[in-house]
Structures are given as structure tokens and as C-alpha cells.
Write a structure and sequence with these properties.
Chain A: Belongs to the binding-protein-dependent transport system permease family. Chain A: Residues 94-273 form the ABC transmembrane type-1 domain. Chain A: It is a multi-pass membrane protein. The complex is a heterodimer. By secondary structure, chain A is mostly helical. Chain A has helices at residues 2-7, 12-26, 28-51, 54-69, 72-88, 91-121, 123-138, 141-152, 156-167, 169-180, 184-192, 197-226, 228-233, 240-248, 252-274, 279-283. The radius of gyration of chain A is 22 Å and the shape is flat. By secondary structure, chain B is of the alpha/beta class. Chain B folds into two domains: 6-129 and 205-295, P-loop containing nucleotide triphosphate hydrolases (Rossmann fold), CATH 3.40.50.300; 298-406, CBS-domain. A six-stranded mixed β-sheet of chain B has the order 6-7-8-3-9-10, sandwiched between helices. Classes of the chains: A mainly alpha, B alpha/beta. Chain A binds chain B through residues 185-186, 188-196, 199, 203-204, 207-208, 210, 279-280, 282-284, and chain B through 93, 95, 123-127, 130-132, 134, 136, 138-144, 147, 151-152, 154-156, 181, 183, 199, 203, 209.
Chain lengths: 285, 414
């Protein structure tokens, strides 16, 4: 019995490989196009940010954070920590990482928020995609790194794709949660005053769910950042690269410095995104 | 404040209300749950709500509810929780689907049946004709007071400048002009409900649905808002359907009251009807706990003219004939005769204010009983009441007051 089971192996892996090969052969154009567009976007943003003198850009970041949060402490922290990154020599890599995070988060939000809204409105749909979301978050990253590598080639793009797969469930889940937990009394009030579906979505559901959705986006940013090193394994530029190199050469100093730069970036992004614009400012519009 | 006021006199005949109603419900059955047909079949066989729920997967919200609300009146739906009052209210703007029957609303001068009209028409009715005030306010917490009040207009697509003008006017009306830019969450409960009222008035809807709007507020604030609502109604003359579980509130606000029990309307009538002629034990139970001073007016407790002794053109106010009032040909009181002496009459207004309580006092019969008692205490003579045409209608002395308070007035009903 045991021998029989062992000798008749189900070729799950082979089938998947054929699938990927099939896609690679017949949908190559589509993947190439995606690859081209994504890498152009990342490269474009990186180049644009690097064209600005680092010190000026740090000033802009600090000023932006101050306007958003009215916190001098945060602005000072941003200036000090980014100057440290410049000092360590990872400014360029940090910008590359930032660009990667920005675009993968943007992709996640663009896909995740609408899917989350749909899922909230159609519980059946959510029941279907929930196991899929669990899968996306639990399956080891390296497993889907290989097919994305085959389909999109080496470089930044498979990094972004893997990052999106890993980070996408967060905005979907939290958007769904936010929209599904809009108080029924608010929905009813809007309905009683004649709201259409779109008015309901944009004037009631989204504003009410906004804090939760923003939490989802912040989480998404953090998850993207945590993928930086793995993305570097398939050739994505950024702060992950020196970490991988340090790992290969057992270079403790380099690994620590690059890691520190990632942490600094993470703290800044978290602090800046954490609290949205205070309620009062939006309400007084 | 007159509780049972002039409307009691102008009770329209049923035939008239058919065409004039602002809101008319005909045999409305509302069913929650899946087995709608089975539930309706059972209800036709006379099954109660409980029996239907045990047998099929459905809960009857209402059974054959009929209701006519005339333009400009406040109709109160009253009952314990679960009696179906809110269910009926929500049918009037289509928030609850009606399984059977019709809900006709006067919209842009035409009768629109909400159970048969299309979605676009339903939306038009909600945008322009029917607005609603909620028990839990239903305000958007992230918006300012102004943006909440303008919500209905915003949904209608009214431009910002126009919206602002209307909103500021309504905020002025409910006394919140200084709070326009505050986030709505910073306001107290009573103020939030004022915002809810302003929002409902802002769309200039003819029909206002109020779902226990004051129940979540503490008693003093509730009383104040009730008075404010009555003041506004005197100016604006909207048609208001008001849900309440408090008979005191219903009697204070309602021109007519529909009492509901288990999804049925068990009595629909004026406050006086409800108090004096409860249709069944359920209604009587509500009425029993009422303070009659808050409900009754003098007209309902007085001894009518027909039961008084007359002597030519004078009417005797006491048994001995020592106090009399002479009336002219059209029955208006002219002069008092006290122990043979002629004296001028004193007149009281609808609140019971009177310049000279030492005389025989003439008051309108809509005078609340409380004010009548106060007058009788200050005056040495029985109070004489006149109807809305100024004709002598009856009198009220200690006996009538005691009977009224005990609510066992052995009076012939007018």
C-alpha cells in the first residue's frame, strides 16, 4: 500500500509548472508589458526623487509631515534620522526602497480598496476570497517568488509583484471590515434622505470607514517594507540589496547599517501615516 | 399650553379624508423573513403574530394597518416596543417593504403609491416630500453641524451657496446658528437632535417622519424639544407622523393618536377619544397611568348648557339661582346677575390668564383643566365656558373638576 502510494506520485508541482510555462509562452506580451510599465514607474519615481538634492528633499519631507500632523517633534525626528541615512551612505538605496514601497502600496490600494468594498457589499464574495487571502498571507514568499521570477524576469518588478501578493490582503480585509461596520443607522438615514448607491458609498460608507481603511493602508506599507530584503533576492534595488550582500559576505557592520536604515524608514512611514488629517480640519472644509 | 386643542372640533368625516390625506395606508401588511406568502396566508386565517412565528420562518410586522394622516396634523403612533409602530413609520418612506396593501403619499400634488412606484420615484419622494428624524439621531459624526443639516440638499444636488443659505436659516430656526461649524459630535444629545430636526426641515419636505426622536433624551430636554416642535409646527404646518411609546408625549403632541398592539392599530382617534373612551383594556392600561391634568380640557369635564336650568334669557349657574348669566339671541353671554345685581363678566384667554378673577369668568372651553382649577380657586363663582363661536357652552364648578380628576364623568358625550 505504502509503496503504491509512493510510486504513484501526484504531479501537483509539475502541473503548476506547466501552467506557468503555458502563461510564459502564450501571455508573454502581457507580462512584458506589465513589467515594462511597473519598472518604468519605479525607476521614474526614483530618478525624480534622486534629482532633488538630498538635503532639500529631507526638508520637504519634514515640512510635509509638519503640515499633516502639526508636530515639531516628528519633523525634527525625520530630519535627524534621514541625515543619519545620508551619513551612512544609503540615501540612494533608501529612495529606491521608498519608490518600491510607494508603488506596491499604490497597487495594493488600487486593487484592495475596491475589492474590499465589493466584499463588504457581497458577503458571499467575501466568503469565497477569504481563504484566498489567508493563502496569500501564509504561503512562504519564496514559493511564489520563483514563478514571478520566471514570468517577469529578474529585477524590481518580481519584487513588486511578490510584495503586492503579500501585502494586498491587509487593505482588502480592513476595507471590508470598515465598510461592513458602518452603523446601520447611518445607512438608513442616508437612504431615508434619498441617497443613491454611489452617494451612499462616497458620502457615508467611505468617510465612515476611512479610519479603518487608513489603518489598512498603513499596515500595507509596513508589510511592503518588510518585503524589501526578499525583493532584493530577485534583484530589486533598494536597502534590501546591501542586507543580502552583507548576508552573503557575513559582513556584520554593513548588515547592521542597512538594517538600521530600513528601520528608520519604517518608523517614519508609520508615524506619518498613523493618524490621518485631524477630523476638525476636514469637517470645517 | 392647550393639549387638546381646536382640532377636536373639526374632526373631518372619513369620506373627506380619503382624497385629502397627506399619507394614507390601506390594509398594510409588513412581513419580515423569508416565508412571506405562508405568513400572509396564516394571517388571513386570523393567526396572531406569535402563532405565525412558531409555524413559519417569518415575523409579521403589521396586520392590515389603515391610517389616514391629514395635511398639517401631527399623528402619533403609540404603543409598547414591538407593537409595530416604527415598522409602520418606515413604510411611509419605503425603508420597510410592504408585503400587501398600499402606502399613498401626496407628492408634488399627486397621490403616489410607494408600494408600486419605481425606484426613481421613491428616491424623488425621499428627496423632496418625506424626511425623517431618528431616535439615535443618525447624524454623520465626521461632519460639521452645517454639513449634517445640508445633507438632504446635498443628496438632491443643490449648489453650495444655496445650500448654505437654507441651512443657516434652519439652524437659526432651531437655535443652533452659533454652532454651525462645530463637529456634530461635540454637541449634547438634545442639541444633536436639534440638528436632526433642522436636517429634516431643510429639505422642505411636507411630511416628517419622527421615530421616537426624543426618547433618548433626558426628561427636561425632552419636554423643551416637544415645546419647540409644537412652536415650529404652528409656523410651518407640516404633516408629522410621530412614533412614541409615551402616552404623555402622544397626548401633548398629537392631533390624533393611533394606538398599536401586536402589529394591529387598536384605536385611532383624538387624544380626548383615547382618554375618555379607550377601545380596549390595552389602551385603558395606558390611560390609567396618565395624569388627567395633563390631558383633559375644560370642555370635556364641564356640565353642558343643555343640562343647566334656564330662566328666560338667563342661565342659572347655581341651584338657587343666585348667580345667573344672561345671554343674547345668539347665545353669547352678556351680563352676570349676582343676587339680583347686574355685573360685568370677566374674560379669560386660552391660557387662563384673567384680569379680574373677582367676577363671573368666561373662558374658552379648550382651556386646560389645570388652568380651569386655578381660575376656580381664585374666583368665587363657577367658570362659564364658551365655544369657538362665543356661545355659552357649559359651566365648570367644584363638582365637575372632581369628576374630571377621577375620570368617571357621568357626562353625556357631545
Amino acid at each position: 500500500m505504502y509503496d503504491w502510494i509512493v510510486s504513484h506520485k501526484i504531479s501537483l508541482g509539475i502541473w503548476l509548472k506547466y501552467g506557468v510555462d503555458f502563461l510564459n509562452r502564450h501571455a508573454q506580451a502581457a507580462f512584458d508589458l506589465t513589467s515594462l510599465v511597473l519598472s518604468a514607474m519605479v525607476q521614474g519615481l526614483t530618478d525624480a526623487l534622486l534629482a532633488i538634492p538630498p538635503l532639500a528633499l529631507i526638508g520637504v519631507f519634514a515640512a510635509g509631515a509638519y503640515l499633516l500632523h502639526r508636530s515639531v517633534g516628528l519633523a525634527l525626528f525625520i530630519v535627524a534620522s534621514l541625515l543619519l541615512v545620508v551619513n551612512l551612505g544609503y540615501w540612494e538605496a533608501a529612495i529606491e526602497t521608498l519608490s518600491l514601497v510607494v508603488w506596491s502600496t499604490a497597487t495594493c490600494v488600487l486593487i484592495g480598496v475596491p475589492v474590499g468594498i465589493l466584499a463588504a457589499h457581497r458577503p458571499m464574495l467575501y466568503a469565497v476570497i477569504r481563504p484566498l487571502l489567508d493563502l496569500m498571507q501564509t504561503i512562504p514568499t519564496f514559493v511564489y517568488l520563483i514563478p514571478t521570477l520566471v514570468l517577469f524576469g529578474l529585477g524590481t518588478v518580481p519584487g513588486i509583484i511578490s510584495t503586492v501578493i503579500f501585502a494586498l490582503p491587509a487593505p482588502i480585509r480592513l476595507t471590508q471590515l470598515g465598510i461592513a461596520s458602518v452603523p446601520p443607522s447611518l445607512r438608513e438615514a442616508a437612504l431615508a434622505y434619498g441617497a443613491t448607491r454611489w452617494q451612499m458609498l462616497f458620502k457615508v460608507e467611505l468617510p465612515s470607514a476611512m479610519p479603518t481603511i487608513l489603518a489598512g493602508i498603513t499596515q500595507c506599507i509596513m508589510l511592503s517594507l518588510s518585503m524589501v530584503v526578499i525583493a532584493a533576492l530577485v534583484g530589486a534595488d533598494g536597502l534590501g540589496k546591501p542586507v543580502v550582500r552583507a548576508l552573503n559576505t557575513v559582513n556584520i557592520a554593513m548588515g547592521f547599517e542597512a538594517g538600521l536604515a530600513i528601520v528608520v524608514l519604517a518608523i517614519i512611514l508609520d508615524r506619518v501615516c498613523k493618524r490621518p488629517v485631524p477630523r476638525r480640519q476636514r469637517a470645517a472644509r | 399650553m392647550s393639549i387638546i386643542d381646536m382640532k377636536a372640533f373639526s374632526q373631518a368625516a372619513p369620506a373627506e379624508t380619503e382624497t385629502e390625506s397627506a399619507v394614507a395606508l390601506r390594509d398594510v401588511d409588513i412581513v419580515f423573513g423569508r416565508s412571506v406568502k405562508a405568513a400572509l396566508a396564516l394571517s388571513d386565517q386570523g393567526a396572531t403574530r406569535q402563532q405565525i412565528r412558531e409555524r413559519v420562518d417569518a415575523l409579521m410586522g403589521t396586520f392590515k394597518v389603515n391610517l389616514d394622516v391629514k395635511p398639517g396634523e401631527i399623528c402619533v403612533l403609540m404603543g409598547l416596543s414591538g407593537s409595530g409602530k416604527s415598522t409602520v413609520l418606515r413604510a411611509i418612506n419605503g425603508l420597510n417593504r410592504v408585503a400587501r396593501g398600499s402606502v399613498v403619499v401626496r407628492h408634488r400634488g399627486e397621490a403616489v403609491d410607494l408600494t408600486r412606484c419605481n425606484a426613481a420615484m421613491l428616491r424623488d419622494v425621499r428627496l423632496n416630500t418625506v424626511s425623517m428624524v431618528f431616535q439615535q439621531f443618525g447624524l454623520l459624526p465626521w461632519r460639521s453641524v452645517r454639513d449634517n443639516v445640508g445633507f438632504g440638499l446635498e443628496l438632491r444636488g443643490v449648489r453650495v451657496a444655496e445650500r448654505r443659505r437654507v441651512v443657516d436659516e434652519k439652524l437659526e430656526m432651531v437655535g443652533l446658528a452659533d454652532w454651525a461649524d462645530k463637529p456634530v459630535q461635540e454637541l449634547s444629545g438634545g442639541m444633536q437632535q436639534r440638528v436632526g430636526l433642522a436636517r429634516a426641515f431643510a429639505t422642505d419636505a411636507d411630511i416628517l417622519l419622527m421615530d421616537e426622536p426624543f426618547s433618548a433624551l433626558d426628561p427636561l430636554i425632552r419636554d423643551k424639544l416637544q415645546d419647540d416642535l409644537l412652536d415650529l409646527q404652528r409656523k410651518l404646518h407640516r404633516t408629522i407622523v410621530f412614533v412614541s411609546h409615551d402616552l404623555g408625549e402622544a397626548l401633548k403632541l398629537g392631533n390624533r393618536i393611533a394606538i398599536m398592539d401586536g402589529g394591529h392599530v387598536v384605536q385611532f382617534g383624538t387624544p380626548t377619544d383615547i382618554v375618555l373612551k379607550p377601545a380596549n383594556a390595552y389602551v385603558a392600561e395606558f390611560v390609567k397611568h396618565m395624569n388627567p391634568l395633563e390631558v383633559l380640557d375644560s370642555g370635556t369635564v364641564m356640565t353642558p348648557l343643555s343640562a343647566l336650568r334656564r330662566d328666560g334669557d338667563t342661565v342659572l349657574l347655581d341651584g338657587s339661582g343666585g348667580v345667573r348669566v344672561s345671554v343674547c339671541v345668539n347665545e353669547r353671554p352678556i351680563m352676570a346677575h349676582i343676587g339680583g345685581r347686574q355685573e360685568a363678566l370677566g374674560f379669560a384667554d386660552t391660557t387662563g390668564a384673567c384680569g379680574d378673577p373677582g367676577r363671573v369668568i368666561v373662558a374658552p372651553m379648550t382651556l386646560p383643566l389645570r388652568a380651569a382649577i386655578d381660575l376656580r380657586l381664585r374666583s368665587p363663582y363657577p367658570i362659564v365656558f364658551i365655544d369657538e363661536l362665543g356661545r355659552l357652552a357649559g359651566l365648570c364648578d367644584h363638582t365637575e373638576i372632581y369628576r374630571g380628576l377621577l375620570q368617571n364623568n357621568g357626562l353625556p358625550n357631545p
